[in-house]
């Protein structure tokens, strides 16, 4: 098992480290000048650097440069969560500092406790090459970690005012449809129209409200390199209070199976089509057993989460059209979004779980 992977210096995003160091010194935090910050590999958006403070290693997180989608990359929200949640959830790294002064590096940023371990990215992580049966255990880790997040009492860690749980799913429906329409100034594609029509024709389920991560997937877990147990859950910038089944559906939107159509394999977000991972249906059954929740209306959450995923890829594709400095893979995200929408329609029709 290897340790964390970092970008080469030529591929590392530039931040004004002298200004950051001066600011941190003014806050009583000393950045070690002898240890250059190193950017972690992975991720399509937020910038993550391993930095060395006088007190030890930490992670500096900052949004990408340029205009940001509404509600995304919210460092203030992430710090609010992580400065409190560690008291109730052992896998939550502790938030150490929030910089709201955007004159320091052009955007807010946070410092978070560093948890050493490995992060498995993509659909063929090298860490699984010699551990073909590890998928069954990792599937359990994902579901059990999500159930643990949903079991936290937000009031016990001063997070009961984090979001607006009443009407959460209706707002999510309206918001993602509006974003889909904004990505299609000439009108929704047939696949998008089918998904939107299906969702609008059904009553919005009314469930309980819990703490949500809102983007749980394997590469947002840091794992023990020997046991593969979860050491930390990262990327909390979309955390809120709302319907926990939407959190589960978001996880399953990345959960590819061997018999899925090509778009789900092109997604390549998790290695769940191989290595012995449980099926989506088995994952849902484990979640239901762990939480006791009724999942009879779960298909609504599934289809909405797939619409959300497709729109996110459409937004990234549009960013590529505006900014030639965008990573080259973004250019293909428009076609990927179309494929995800086709799959969402198949899920709505019960052709896939």
TrEMBL record:
Signal sequence interval, chain numbering: none
Keywords: Transferase
SUPFAM superfamilies per UniProt: Protein kinase-like (PK-like)
Domain called Aminoglycoside phosphotransferase: residue spans: 38-272
Gene3D superfamilies, per the entry: 3.90.1200.10, Phosphorylase Kinase, domain 1 (3.30.200.20)
Keyword Transferase on entry: yes
GO molecular function, a single term: transferase activity
InterPro entries documented for this protein: ACAD10-like, ACAD10_11_N, Aminoglycoside_PTrfase, Kinase-like_dom_sf
Record-given protein name: Phosphotransferase family protein
Any coiled-coil regions, as ranges: none
Family annotation (CDD domains): ACAD10_11_N-like
């Amino acid at each position: 098992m290897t340790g964390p992977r970092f970008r080469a210096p030529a591929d590392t995003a530039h931040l004004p480290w002298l200004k950051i160091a001066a600011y941190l010194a003014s806050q009583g935090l000393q950045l070690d000048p002898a240890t250059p910050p190193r950017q972690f590999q992975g991720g399509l958006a937020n910038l993550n650097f391993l930095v060395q403070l006088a007190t030890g290693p930490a992670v500096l997180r900052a949004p990408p440069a340029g205009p940001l989608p509404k509600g995304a990359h919210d460092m203030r929200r992430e710090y609010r969560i992580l400065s409190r949640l560690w008291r109730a959830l052992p896998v939550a790294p502790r938030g150490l500092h929030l910089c709201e002064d955007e004159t320091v590096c052009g955007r807010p940023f946070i410092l978070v406790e560093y948890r050493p371990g490995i992060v498995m990215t993509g659909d063929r992580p090298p860490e699984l090459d010699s551990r073909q049966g590890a998928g069954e255990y990792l599937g359990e880790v994902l579901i059990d970690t999500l159930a643990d997040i949903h079991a936290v009492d937000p009031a016990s860690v001063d997070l009961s005012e984090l979001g607006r749980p009443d009407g959460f799913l209706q707002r999510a429906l309206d918001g993602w449809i509006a974003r889909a329409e904004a990505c299609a100034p000439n009108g929704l594609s047939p696949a998008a129209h089918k998904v939107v029509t299906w969702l609008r024709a059904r009553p919005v389920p009314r469930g309980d409200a819990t703490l949500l991560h809102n983007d749980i997937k394997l590469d947002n877990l840091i794992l023990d390199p020997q046991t593969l147990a979860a050491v930390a859950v990262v990327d909390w910038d979309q955390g809120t209070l709302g319907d926990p089944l939407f959190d589960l559906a978001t996880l399953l939107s990345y959960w590819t199976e061997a018999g899925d159509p090509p778009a789900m394999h092109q997604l390549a977000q998790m290695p769940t089509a191989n290595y012995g991972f449980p099926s989506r249906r088995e994952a849902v059954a484990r979640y239901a057993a762990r939480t006791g929740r009724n999942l009879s209306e779960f298909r609504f959450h599934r289809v909405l989460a797939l619409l959300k995923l497709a729109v996110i890829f459409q937004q990234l594709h549009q960013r590529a059209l505006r900014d030639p400095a965008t990573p080259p893979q973004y250019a293909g995200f428009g076609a990927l979004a179309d494929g995800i929408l086709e799959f969402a329609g198949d899920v709505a029709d019960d052709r896939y779980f």
